Amino acid sequence: MTTTTIRLPAAQPPGTVLGTAPDSAESADAYRTAGGYAGSTGPGELLAHLAASGLRGRGGAGFPAAVKLRSVRDRGNHGEHGGHGLRPVVVANGEEGEPGSVKDRWLLRARPHLVLDGLTRAAEVTGAVRGFVYLSDPVAGESVRRALAEHPPPLPVEVVETGHTYVAGEETAVVRRIDGGPALPAAKPPRPFERGVGGAPTLICNVETLARIALTATRPDLRHDIARGTLVTLSGGPAAGAVLTEVPYGIPLRSLASRHGIHGAAGALMGGLFGGLVGAGALDLPLEPVELTAAGTALGCGAIRFLTPGTCPVATAADAAAHLAAESARQCGVCVSGTAAIGDALCALAGATASPDTADRLDRWSRGLPGRGACGLLDAAAGIAGSLLRAFPRQVRFHLAAPCPVCAADVPGEGRRRLTVAVPEVAVPATTASPAPLGPGPTAPLSVPHPSPSASPSAPPAAPPPAALKGTP
Ligand code: SF4
Predict the structure, then answer these.
(1) What pLDDT, on the 0 to 100 scale, is given for residue 454?
(2) How far apart are the C-alpha atoms of 262 and 230, rounded to whole Å?
(3) Radius of gyration, CA atoms only, the chain
(4) For atom 1 of ligand 1, which residue has the closest CA?
């Protein structure tokens, strides 16, 4: 696991998330002094600013934040459109399962008030009467509890912890866990905005998105800069470890790499694991969600692992697929067998034991498997295989013909170790005040039973907002 360095933007302009206190948890006083908790922007006005800015969610799906907020508000509007008359719930989703991403855990550790301010704003917009902060990182949990005690929010907010897995942050998994079940994806529909926690319309919002909502409420004049700034976790450099930084959309991927000490990049693993592999030619693309998607890749949660000249793309693909296979929640038969098959085939390719038809099989799976699991994990594995074939055909042919010296130096498929980056340390002072009153705990009985995913997953849903596997579109 590499260490992670935080690089603040050169001038630290207003409206940035990284702020000025990256090494220790920001106190309520410091947050208030910086203008936090003081924005006078009303809920309707804030929603209009978010719509005008085009702020997109930062959990991976990149869905427009204003649309998502409005959907929950409308569902909860006295039972309108089938909301069952339950008042909405808001959830700050800080569980990032992508091994190459650290931004959400760092944000909860270092800037908990910014996230809680955003959660409160989202509650005002949606009419929510109850909130949750969902996470797996114990340091982040301590930081959030301390922040809740320092500055009790106007609605009950509870911290719900989960195990750290790839799928625990997927939005239906979040709902199931908060309702006392396992943190595993459920069949859709219903989506959480239709029927979520306790059956209520529920906003599941990534913590960076909430931070940007809070910043927009405080500085609506900077709404466009706030919406176009984004946290990225960059890894793959030689000895420098990973970098967590904040950049504006639009910067070319190649400049992003070299600016952070990664020179001569030959490609990248994009979006966590969900954007797949891209070759050197794609590094001229701008860091821009829409353009990256149009180019067949994805920004996802902003985790980018650059391939240096000494990195083998086949080994990276094998690492990624093996990691996904190990993280399958084993609920959908097609995922259990499909993800494992992709992982095995890529590991065999890296280990020089692949059969001659391996490339054909990978190609077939990459086209036939997406969309057949209850969540996006299978899609990610299929995307890794397909993107490797498209971006690095010469290297695939080479691996079928002869052992690769780079792969031979490593054990193929040990992706968890090689792909995981460390969350930067943040000092969290001990809590001194009593915590705010909380609602029922996460093990409270389910108000509404949730469907479990079946062996034959549901068809793709038609209504927004879409489900977001953390770190996946
Ligand atoms: S697709 Fe895989 S990871 Fe997702 S719910 Fe099904 S079995 Fe679990």
Answers:
(1) 33
(2) 19
(3) 21
(4) 373
Both 98 and 222 in one domain: the answer is yes
Q: Among 145, 91, 140, 143, which residue's Cα sits nearest to residue 119?
A: 91
Same domain for 208 and 340, yes or no, is no
Question: Is 97 within a domain?
Answer: yes
Q: Cα separation of 321 and 303, whole Å?
A: 16
pLDDT in tens, 269-299: 999 999 999 999 999 999 999 999 999 999 9
C-alpha to C-alpha distances, 318 to 238, 344, 354, nearest whole angstrom: 20, 8, 12
Place of tokens 């466009």: 224
Higher pLDDT, 418 or 333: 333
Residues 275, 183 share a domain: no
| Strand 242-248 relative to strand 229-235, pairing | antiparallel
What spacing in Å lies between the alpha carbon of 202 and ligand 1's midpoint? 22
pLDDT per residue over 29-68, tens digit each? 999 998 899 878 899 999 999 999 999 999 988 899 999 9
**CA–centroid distance, residue 342 to ligand 1 (Å):** 15
Report the nearest atom of ligand 1 relative to the CA of 453.
Answer: 5
> Which pLDDT tens digit goes with each residue over 24-35?
999 999 999 988
